[in-house]
Write a structure and sequence with these properties.
Blueprint lengths: L11 E6 L7 H17 L1 E6 L1 H8 L6 H15 L7 E4 L5 H10 L4 H5 L2 H9 L8 H4 L1 H10 L5 E4 L4 H18 L7 E4 L27 H8 L21 H9 L2 H13 L4 H26 L4 H27 L2
Parallel strand pairs: 1-2, 2-3, 4-5
Helix pairs in contact: 3-13, 4-8, 4-14, 8-9, 10-13, 11-13
Length: 332
């Protein structure tokens, strides 16, 4: 009897982060929470993308190594498991620049120049000279990060979908020239983090408005207590609108359903003051972060190279198999 059931394709997830400093709750909400779920279900590769960091920090790369350590500790502290996922340093995989070079030979210059983030980031980082081939080639290097380890699924927010479209185009172009070597990667849309910064703007270390995953209990308290709340609540007796309060946005991510309902009703009726509202949030944030701190303590004194060695070896082995096929197809 013919089996009519379709075999489900194995999802190989690839994602990474640039080591530009300690990670914060925005990274948890926007990426790491989803990574934990994916590592239970898929084959995952998570890269500390230090070459990507060089695209903007090339003039002074002295902090990248320390930042790589901070990122790794943050990953491990939230539960990214090197026994389940391949956790590695991008610069340890020498096959990546080799494949990048081969793809650079066929990458249309105009196509790279039309990537929206190319102009956006140049405008945002106007204090740096980003008129470099490395910065222009950033999205092409992202393509290589994905396909060199056989990645076919990339968790991204909507603002990064364009990069995955470019990756598919480049894979198709390569396959047209050299044969069907690579699978076209697909985006896995993840909900955008709606967690604001402490001042109500986007949470970003450049704004100094973040709660880091590595913050201790007193630091969390010292950051939350002066937070701005709904401007309507000038006095304790003034009712407010929770949707306009950054503190309430944190409650929606880190408080229980019952507490969210209590805080929302109390704000609208002025039955609860902003200080009491913040105290509830502080307790819940520290409850969330306590196991994160405990896991971090287990790795704090470890050598980063020892922690990364197994993942580097596994990623290198997978990338090596990819390049064997590519060299044969390109006849190099």
């Amino acid at each position: 009897m013919q089996n009519t059931e379709k075999t489900e394709k194995k999802r190989i997830v690839m994602s990474g982060m640039r080591p530009t400093g300690p990670l914060h709750l925005g990274h948890w909400e926007g990426a790491l929470r989803n990574w934990l779920k994916l590592q239970q279900e898929c084959e995952c590769y998570f890269s500390i993308a230090d070459w990507h960091a060089l695209t903007t920090e090339y003039a002074d790369p002295s902090a990248i190594r320390d930042h790589a350590r901070a990122v790794l500790l943050d990953w491990l502290s939230v539960g990214i498991d090197p026994d389940r996922s391949v956790v590695f340093r991008q610069s340890a995989i020498k096959e990546i620049p080799e494949l990048f070079l081969l793809f650079a030979m066929i990458a249309p210059l105009g196509r790279l120049e039309r990537v929206p983030t190319f102009k956006e980031q140049k405008a945002q980082l106007a204090d740096r000279d980003l008129n470099t081939f490395g910065f222009l080639g950033y999205p092409l290097l992202q393509t290589i990060d994905i396909i060199v380890v056989g990645g076919n699924t990339v968790p991204v927010g909507e603002d990064q979908v364009y990069h995955i479209e470019l990756a598919r185009e480049m894979v198709r172009r390569f396959n047209q020239f050299y044969g069907e070597v690579f699978e076209e990667p697909m985006e896995l849309l993840t909900p955008q983090s709606r967690l604001p910064g402490l001042d109500g703007r986007k949470m970003s270390k450049s704004y100094g408005n973040v709660i880091n995953l590595s913050d201790d209990a007193e630091t969390v308290k010292s950051k939350i207590m002066p937070m701005k709340t709904d401007v309507r609540r000038q006095r304790r007796s003034d009712p407010g609108v929770p949707e306009d309060c950054p503190v309430f946005a944190f409650h929606k991510s880190f408080s229980s359903v019952e507490q969210i309902a209590e805080v929302e009703a109390g704000c609208r009726s002025a039955a609860i003051g902003c200080i009491d509202c913040k105290k509830i949030l502080i307790a819940n944030l520290n409850r969330f972060l306590e196991p994160v701190r405990e896991r971090r303590a287990r790795f704090e004194n470890s050598d980063i190279e020892d922690l990364l060695a197994p993942g580097n070896a596994r990623a290198r082995e997978r990338a090596g198999r990819t390049l064997e096929v590519v060299r044969a197809q390109v006849k190099i």
